[in-house]
Amino acid sequence: MAMSKYIVRPGGSGVGFDIAITGGNGARNTLLGFSTEREAEAWIERDKRLNDHTDPFMPLLTMLRRDHNAEYPEMLTSRLLTEGGDA
Question: pLDDT averaged over the chain?
């Protein structure tokens, strides 16, 4: 499986930072509106960990992880386990 490529770049309006992503299949996405370069880099590290992870909740988390405003996946997994009853 090919790895995604990430580029952190200054925001289009000259404020903040964006992440340009090229997926292993050639698909391109851009995440907008990170306050700092460090925040964007942290998101990339989290995304890479998720791509390498073999968690049973991964299909659900995959849908949510591209939204950097969504709750952290660890919080979602915890909530699913807690609210799901049998974990």
Answer: 75
